[in-house]
Design brief:
Layout lengths: L4 H16 L6 H11 L18 H7 L4 H10 L5 E2 L6 H4 L7 E8 L4 E2 L4 E7 L3 E7 L4 E5 L4 E4 L7 E3 L5 E3 L5 E5 L4 E7 L8 E2 L5 H6 L2
Parallel strand pairs: 2-3
Antiparallel strand pairs: 1-2, 2-4, 4-11, 5-10, 5-12, 6-9, 6-11, 7-8, 7-10
Helix pairs in contact: 1-2, 1-4
The structure holds fe (ii) ion.
Fe (ii) ion binds next to loops.
Amino acid sequence: MPNDPAAIMRLIEEIDRYLADLNGDGLDDVRQGILRFGQGPVNDSVKPAPPACGHLDAALLCMRGADALRHAIKEARPQLRWITYDAYPVNEIGKRFPVAHAFASLIGRDGFVPADDFELGLFLIAPRTLYRDHRHKAPELYVPLTGPHEWRFGAGERWSEYGAHSPIWNEPMRVHATLVRDIPFLALFGWTRDVTVNAVVVPASDWTEIEAGL
Ligand SMILES: [Fe+2]
């Protein structure tokens, strides 16, 4: 049982404040979801669990700027339940990703604040990980809190570097992949609808080569 539900609500409020200062597609969609679903009360049956992939300490140390948000994450941290996304077949997503990522839902089906078709949370990827190309029906906002990291939007497309606090909005079924080198990836994520439709891996011919170089 969360010993400080107010810390969870303060984190959700701080995320909303942080998003309000950014510009880009999808930010309003996520803020509307927070407004619609994020008022609480906090579900007190969520059991804390640290991220099995580790690297949360290092990720928080790598956060520059957004001091109020970093503080709110630290305050809520003892209560966060970090789990993994298990919808991908391991022969498609690879052996590393399943043990090199974790997410903590704040608003959502399994989040602190229940929502039926919206999800907001924190996402963590360990260094030297390729999150292989994939897509999903849910429109998705990522706001990396660390960086830079590399992204591409189509198997075989060129990689682009995105710094911390640069939002990335993925329209439904947009193919995307994330390349995490030495800096751990910590991000906010929001899925604004169709959250029950699983993501699928999109094959690319260069995974082996990229992963060998990490
Ligand atoms: Fe995604």
